[in-house]
Amino acid sequence: MSYWLCPRAAAQPLLRLATRAPGPVKGPAREALRWLATSTTAPKRTICTRLLSTATNRPRCTASPTTCFARGAFNRRTFFTRRIAKKYEDLPANYRDEFGLDFRAKELSQEEVDRVFRRGSISADDANTLLRILHGRRVAGTLEDPAYAENTAQFSEKQIEAALDYLRITVPVDEALNAGLRAEVELAEIEEEEELRGQGISPTEKGASSLSTFKIKPLYKTDPVYGESRFDQIRAENEAKSAALEAARQARQRAEEEAAGGAEALERARAGPVALIKEDGGKIMNPKIAEYYMKAQEQGDIEPEFVSFWQRVLPSLTVVTLVIGFLAAVTTVYEEPADTYRMMRSLSTAQATVCALIGANIIVWLGWKVPPLWGLFNRYMILVVGKVKPVTLLTANFSHQKLTHLLMNMVPLYFVGTALHEEIDRAQFLTLYMACGAAGYLSSLVVYTLRGWLSVSSLGASGCTLGVLTAYFWGHRDDGYRLFGLPQDGVPGIVLLALVVAPQLAYFGKAMRSKIDLASHLGGMTMGLVGMEVLQRRRRFTQGQGQTREDGVMSEVKTKTEVEGKDEGDDGKKEEERRHIDVFGWLWRGNGGDRDGGEAKR
C-alpha cells in the first residue's frame, strides 16, 4: 500500500512493477482494476504510469507514507483529509474567532514554524493558534475588524504579518469578497434591528447576534428539482465580488468628491476657550475659499509632536515667565500720563484701556472672516497642545471665532474691568490681565499634556475675563452689593465670587463633552486671586511706609482742634462709604459703616 499512498517513497520498485508483463487477472481483483481504469481522467494512461511520471520528477519523501499523503502529495483532497474552508459561505455554524479555522490538514511542526517565523520567537502551539485565527478571519471577512483584536493581542505585529504572508501563499483566499459579504450581512442585521425597533420590538427579544455569531447569507437559491448547480454558484460568487468592488469604488469616489468639493467648516463652541474643534457638517461651496481652507490646514501643521513633558511645557513656561516678569517690572516705574498728553480726554483712563483691549479682540474676530488670514491665525492665534508655539499662550487671549463667544467675554470685561482699573493703574491692570490669560493657557498645556490629549486646541479671552472678575470680587469680598437697593445689607462680594466659581466646578468631568477649556478657566481665576492679593499687600506696605514718615515729621503735635477735626473726618468717611457706586450700569455696591452703627453692617 505504500506505493499508492506515497509516490515519492520509491520509484524503482514501481518501475519494475510496471515493466513486468501482466498476467491474466481474475476474481475481485479484475473488478477493482476495471474501476481504476474507468476512474482515471486520462484515457490512455493508467494510474501506475501517472504515479511513475510524478515520482521520478519529485524529490524523495523522507517522512512516513501516511504523513506524505496527509500533506497533500497528490495535491488534492481525499476521503481521509479535512476540508479547508476558503469561502464565506463555507463557514461552519459553530465558528468562533478565538478558535479560528483549520488552514491545513496537519498543524505545523516546530521546525516548520521556525522557517515561517524567526527561530525561537514563537512556539508551535502559539503559531498554529495564530494561523487558525487569522485564516478564520480571512474567510469570515473580519481581518480588519478591531472588535476581535483582543484574541491576537499577545502576538506582535511582525508575527501577524509573517503568519498572513504564509497563509496568503499556501491557502489563497479572496479576502475582499469575503469582507464584502460580511459587510452585507451586517448591514442586513442593522436594517432588521431598525425595523424591529420601529415596530416596538426589542432586538434582544428577537435574538440579536453577537460578534462571535456569523450568519451566512446564501449566494444563490438551490434549484428544488436538480439541486445545487456549480454554474449558479460561480455566477453568484462573481456577482457578489463585483458588488463588493463596486461598493468600494463608490465609497472611494464619494470621498474624492467630498475632498474636491470643499472642506468641512469649523465651528467653535460656547463661551470659554474651546477645547476641541467641532465639525458642523456644512460645506464650503466656494472653490476659492475651499482652497484657502485647505492651505490653512497645511500651514497650521497641527500634527502632534511626541516629545517628553518638559520638552513640550518648558519653552512656553519660560516665555510666559519672561513676559509677565517684564510687565511686572514696568509697574514699579510706571506713572499715569497727565491729561494734556492723552488723546481721548473725554474717556477716563480705565475706559480707554479696556476699550483698547476690546477693540483688539474685535479686530482679530473680524480677521477670522478673511480667508487669506486663516493660515496665519491657525499658526499664531490658537493654542494647539500637540504642536504648541509659546507665543500662542499670549496671542490666543485675543482670538475669537464666534460672535457669541466674543460678547460673553467682552461685556463683563468692560463693566468689571473698568471698575477694577479705577482702583489700580494702567500698568498693573494690563499686567494682571495678561498674567491671567497666560496662566490659564499654561494650565491647559500642562493638564492636557499629562492626560495625553495632544489634539486639543483652545482660544478665547475667558481666562483673562474670569481672572479680572475674580480679582475684583476678591478685592471687595467684604463689601455689599445691591440691585435696585435690594437687599438692604447687600450681597457680600465673596458670595458673588462663589457664584462665578460654581459653574466652573459644575463642569468637572464634562468639560470635553461641553467643549469647555476648564483648565484655562481655573488657571486664570487662580492667577486673578493671587495677583489681587499681591497688589493689596503691596499697597498696604507702601501706605505703611508713608504713614511712618508722616508720624516722624508730626511727632507729638496733637491739639483738641485736631481731635475734633478727626471726628468730623470719620463722619465724612462713613458718608462717603455709604454712597452707591455704579459698577455694571444696574448693579450698585455700597460699603456699610462700622459694626456699631445702625445701618448696613458689611
Question: What structural class is derived from the secondary structure elements?
Answer: mainly alpha
**Mean of residue pLDDT?**
72
- Biggest sheet character: 4 strands, antiparallel
**Helix count from the secondary structure assignment:** 23
As laid out across the biggest beta sheet, the strand order is 6-5-8-7
State the distance separating the first and last CA atoms: 112 Å
Helix coverage percent of residues?
55-70%
Percent of residues in beta strands: 5-15%
What is the CATH domain class of the domain at 265-276 and 371-547?
Mainly Alpha
Number of extended strands: 8
Low-confidence stretches: 1-80, 206-216, 263-281, 553-561, 572-602
CATH topology of the domain at 265-276 and 371-547: Rhomboid-like fold
Rg, alpha carbons:
42 Å
Question: What general form does the structure show?
Answer: elongated
CATH architecture of the domain at 265-276 and 371-547: Up-down Bundle
